[in-house]
Amino acid sequence: MLKMKTAGHTISMALLAAGCLLPFVAIGGDTPVDYDIIPRELADNAVLLRERALLDNLSVDIVESITTEVGPRRVGTEGDRRAIAWAEAKFRELGFDRVWTEEVPVEYGWIRGEASAEIVSPYPHNIVMTALGYSVGTHGDLVGEIVEFADFEALEAVPEGDSLNGKIAFVSYSMADFVPAPGASRMSGYGKGTQARGRGHVAAAKRGAAAIIIRSVGTDNNRYAHTGSGYGYEEGVKKIPAAAISPPDAILIQNMLKRGKPVVVKMNLTSEITGPVKGANVIGEMTGRSDSDNYLVLGAHLDSWDEGTGAIDDGAGVGSMMAAAALIGQMEQRPRRSIRVLLFAAEEIGLVGAQAYLAANKENLDRHLLGAEVDGGGGRAHTMISGVGEASVQVMREMHKLIAPLGIAWSDANDANGASDMGVLGRAGMPALNLQQNSNDYFMYHHTPNDTFDKIIPEDMRYLTAAYATLFYLAAELDVDFRK
Amino acid sequence: MLKMKTAGHTISMALLAAGCLLPFVAIGGDTPVDYDIIPRELADNAVLLRERALLDNLSVDIVESITTEVGPRRVGTEGDRRAIAWAEAKFRELGFDRVWTEEVPVEYGWIRGEASAEIVSPYPHNIVMTALGYSVGTHGDLVGEIVEFADFEALEAVPEGDSLNGKIAFVSYSMADFVPAPGASRMSGYGKGTQARGRGHVAAAKRGAAAIIIRSVGTDNNRYAHTGSGYGYEEGVKKIPAAAISPPDAILIQNMLKRGKPVVVKMNLTSEITGPVKGANVIGEMTGRSDSDNYLVLGAHLDSWDEGTGAIDDGAGVGSMMAAAALIGQMEQRPRRSIRVLLFAAEEIGLVGAQAYLAANKENLDRHLLGAEVDGGGGRAHTMISGVGEASVQVMREMHKLIAPLGIAWSDANDANGASDMGVLGRAGMPALNLQQNSNDYFMYHHTPNDTFDKIIPEDMRYLTAAYATLFYLAAELDVDFRK
Fold first, then answer.
1. Which of A123, A128, A251 has its CB closest to that of B453?
2. What pTM did the predictor assign?
3. N or C: which end of chain B has fewer CB within 10 A?
């Protein structure tokens, strides 16, 4: 019986006495945890790894490194090329056994150019605008009267035709004011906002509009516009400029419209769609000691939007996943199975790197035993959701016990597909797990100039990293088939 | 005895029953308040005024109006001229009995122009920079190596000479990280920051620097630079460009410097000092019914910096002070004494409008019976400090009892001079009172593009306005000499 228990508390107390552990270990409870599947020694090692990770700043240092030494890295730009070189060098520096890149061709490139805008009447104001990804430019000043739509549905409700001729459609939907349905998360408000961001320009063009502007999809009220989306024009529909304005400027326009006066905006975007560009997925492997051809995969995306330095989106993912694997790599011996960190290219323009990865690795998909991705900032995880075969749910529950002391709850849903890029592999059949995070900050900063290193909360990053290190160490040692 | 009491509670209960009062009136306590000086009827009226003000959105509407219909209004700009016209019209609309302007000549004007900057090496990054007020331009790209100073004192500790030749001095002092001495407020951290903002360019020039940049003086970590100061070059010292960078970019540069590599910045400011300009103090008066030649003065400044729309700095002051007087004006009869709202010109460049006002009104200073100013945002007041003659402290204490239910404490200091512009008059001898406010938000937004209407918290503005309306109604009715 004792063999099947982890003396989690006993270890904690001993380490605490030795000054090695933070007091929160006590959250684990006062009694040893029972395990039916995880051997005691393995669980003990996982506890030690978890506790070491909580004291290790590597994940934060990695975010500091990529945001300082690289900065913005949209696919196809000089910054993206520097990011690829940075990632290869960083994997090597951290002791990964194998490091390689896989090219990701991207059909179009894009030059952001400059964006400027002003309200011409009834009251002149400069406003803050940014082009949405892969928008065409305005080719000089574009001047038009604003027609407001509460959301994408309201725009789509207008019959196709020419009713918006010469006008600028303005979708004023506010993610900040969206109240999710009971049980739903903030993400549902994001999803609603991204409809106009991703397809508003097509809908507006079909109704004759000269351009579309949207209130930024975010939860903040800072005077930044949130960019987003990426090449989404429709064949046969006029390509009109698409831009986001800052929340305060959206409110300003709405307050002018309330006065019953026509609001006229002048905007100028010098953005431009170009020919094909190339990105690369960068992969680092800690090679398994005995079953090296099967691997666990930790994902994040290497690219970022081009206005901030990509700290929370997705430097936090890069930092936590690289660090989780590196911390496992610092243990006495490599785990049985390999652990791969996949840094995807071109996530921001529609999971392009992940799709390229799947196409190139389709035959090896069965060797991807379990995957997870961090693409929701550096906040702490609060809930673990598995997405595995029924037969292995029980082992997932046991693995969860080792991260429960980090304040992470268990969900019975077992419907995880893998977040973001990893969802491409998850939907193709790869077993996955998701750690849902506190992403309250995320939607305040992401896709804006304000996504910078200072937004990272180091303690939270250490918690997040510790959770992934613990889970993936266990998954790499256990002889479990997670397949559905 | 009853005559000398205000049945505050009794009134409250009756009004509450009638659906007129918010429940917080009960904060006033369960027993009638004793007064030695304030007659009961007057106190009763003051309570009614206070409660009405708490339900009245006028102060917020005024901020919405000036930020929407005018926006940025730096002295000498088109926006400032529109603000003057707006203020005159608004006073009239609100029923002020007399409205006039007093011209304020300003020795120099200034064109902000554009500011752009990038880190050239060791890692290229665009950074967010703004010119400090009245900085000269760079006349093309200015490229220099960064030399960091922890604060203004560290810069001044360098012997004058040419040790910074060709370099860009960088004062990295962070108001956000400043810990005030026990008992001191956040303002002490602001004061420390404004040393480099106001005089850093002179100190740096005396040591040969080609330019100076400072970490923005603010408590936020948004990617905005806070502008500030205003014409401060010294005769005989080279005029070098002076700019602020955003906190995240200051941290970025510091992180690069930590790597031991030279950091080279390229900056380009097209700002320009021009010839003289004109502003105007705009004054509205609710004329007293019997002692109209003596007046209470409520102050705020009409000008703003030019990047946001001047909502918290100082739209909140304009809104609360105009509304407080207007609410008094809506009472059955005018108070005995006059109440004047003074909207000062050119505060942001060094209290220029207030000095002009004092010069023009020196002979009437004795008629300014009591003054106060709001220039700390729209937050609630938490402490009342008088600055009056000993003989009238007791009446101030009684006046305070009428605003105590708003959550405002009394301070015995009696050393108030009047905030901001009003301090010019206070230091010249005018009796004053200060309501210290919660200004936590203020230093996050002020002097940035982010100072916009959405930052106003309506409920807080109503509390603030109610306090001033109550106090100045009482002061206008009481036959008290507040002089020191």
1. A251
2. 0.91
3. N
